[in-house]
Every structure is written in structure tokens, then in C-alpha cells.
Amino acid sequence: MLIRTRRGWELPESAATPEGVFRDRRRLLRNLAAGSIAAALPLAACSPGEEDSADAAAPAPALAPAPRNPAYTIERALTPKDVAGTYNNFYEYGSSKDIWQEAQRLQVRPWEIVIDGLVEREFTIGIDDLLARVELEERVYRHRCVEAWSMTVAWSGFPMRSLVEMAAPLASAKYVRMETFADREMAPGQRQFWYPWPYVEGVTIAEATNELSFLVTGAYGETLPKQHGAPLRAAFPWKYGFKHGKSLVRISFVEEQPLNFWQELQGREYGFWANVHPGVPHPRWSQDSERVLGTGERVATQLFNGYTEFVADLYRGMEDQPIWF
Ligand code: MTE
């Protein structure tokens, strides 16, 4: 019989402390112990200690960690950072889950994002200028892949609605189309011509402005690791993970429903909506349960991945339409 002992990180989410906050707290305590005047300064002014030297690529301290928004927490334990960061889907770097090292080829500065299409003002903005214009917060979200595995991640970023407001879409705009970078030098996977690069995803404007829709710039209180889609990726936690376009360079407001990467590749298996529904199987496997990364437990999948109260209104009257794949 397998007897499992509960490990430190298997706390209920409400009891978990974001790692970045924890690290900064440790730093503060260390400075206090040393009687350092620096302890009285804002954390951004503290000089890095020994343990921080590995964080040479960390962002300006003002960007991470961001305060957690308690409106978005769940009852599951956070997936350990190293588990989430070593089991990724990022086909630009290969079709296995083990791409995190290969993904370090991604160059995230300079990084510009084009906002265009049916908007009052098209513009191009550098990621750091964009970050200076938004308020960052941390949210604990479920993440359910269409492949029937899941995790719980502390993302930081800002509501997608803020970006929609900056763009001021015209009434004729019905969808938001998100495009990942295209660079075959930086992403060897893009040399595989049978994939329809660049990776594209899309949501309706109503979905993009739903309070859950989040543009992610960090994870676990730190700058977003490259393998998670730095410097800017999307999160729509009630949808399957393939909707979460990574390393976005272009966000367009369009009239026609965008064709996404997986739909273009295999339209009989992947659709536009991809809302999580345990009762609607993928053509090749069931969606009624999921394997939790880190613990290996199998748990029941929930309608809209547990976010029905936030999103049911978006689909009222559409239940008989194919909004589940
Ligand atoms: N975005 C790009 N550009 N390329 C990809 O291959 N994979 C998608 C999505 N976004 C993908 C992508 C899929 S299938 C999933 S499940 C999630 O990213 C995985 O995100 P994670 O690796 O951060 O967990």
C-alpha cells in the first residue's frame, strides 16, 4: 500500500505564501538581524544578498512580487514552481514537455507589442512601457490542459480589459486575435513547416473583458520564466490551456472569428471556444477527470474548470452551440 506523507508545499492554497513575498520577507529579516538601515527602506532599495545573485535576470523589484488579489484564490495546493516550470507546452521549442532549457533561447528584450485592427488608435508599445501603464496583481488560477493534466499557478499580471480599454475597439470589432512571435532562429520549432506558425489564438471581446481574462507577466512572485511564455502570455482559466497564447507580439481587434493554431492543424479535434466541460470528451480521450501535476492525483474536472460563476453569463443561450471544444 502506498502511504503518502504530506509535503510542505501541499498546503491549502489559502495557507500558502507566494514565494516572492516569502523571499522578500526573509531578506527583510536578514537585514533586521544585521541591524541594517536598509531594512527601513522600500524593498526595491535593498542591496541583493547572496541568495539573490542567481536572480540576475530578475525584473525591476517594483514589478514582482505583485500583491495577491484575494478574489482569485482556490482550494487546491499551488503546484510547485519547479514542477510547473519543467512541464510545458511551447511548440516553438519542441513537442515534448521538457522544453524549458531550449526555451531559454527566447530573447525577451527588446520586446514590442503591436495593437492594431479595428481600434480607435493603433499603437506599438514596448513591454516595459506597457508594464508601467498597468497595475500588476497576483492571482492563483487553475490551469487545465486539453490533454487532461492540470496545475494551480500563481500568475501575476494585469486584467486583459485594461489593454482593451487602451486600444478602444470600434463597434465593428468582435474578436481579439493574439499572435506569438515568429523567429525561426530564436525558436527552432518554427522550422517545422507542417505547423501553421505563428501560434495564434483568439477570444471574443466579451471574453477578453471578462474579469478573469488576464495578461500574465510573472509567476510565483517572479518575472515570467521563458518557458511559460515570457514576457507576456494570456490566461483564460475557464478554457483549455491551448487558448493561452504565449510570448505575444500582436493583439488585433477583428470582425471575423480568428482561426487558432490547433484548429488550423486539426479542426476536428480543436475549436475556437475550448471551454472546459467534463462531459464533452475530446475525440480521442475523456475530459471527465484530470491528473494534477506534482501530486499525480486524479481529480474530477469541473464545468468551466470551476469558474462557472464568473463566466456562465458569457454563454447564456449558447449551450446547444459547440462552445465546448
Ligand atoms: N503558446 C504558444 N505560443 N505555443 C504553444 O505551443 N501551447 C499552449 C499554450 N500556449 C502553446 C502556447 C498549450 S497547449 C498549453 S497547455 C499552455 O500554453 C501551456 O502553458 P504552460 O507551459 O505555461 O503550462
Offer a concise description of the structure.
This protein is an alpha+beta fold and 325 residues long. Helices cover 14% and strands 20% of the residues. Bound molecules: ligand MTE.
CA distance, first residue to last residue: 39 Å
Helix content: 10-25%
Mean pLDDT: 85
Strand content: 15-25%
| Helix/strand/pairing category | alpha+beta
Assembly type of the shown chains?
A: single chain
Bound heterogens, unique: ligand MTE
Order of helices and strands: HHEEHEEHEEHEEEEHEEH
> Which ranges are low-confidence, i.e. pLDDT below 50, for 5 or more consecutive residues?
1-61
Overall 3D shape: globular
Per CATH, which architecture?
A: Alpha-Beta Complex
Number of strands: 12
Number of helices: 7
Question: Largest sheet, described in full?
Answer: 7 strands, mixed
As for the CATH topology, it is: Sulfite Oxidase, Chain A, domain 2
According to CATH, the homologous superfamily is: Oxidoreductase, molybdopterin-binding domain
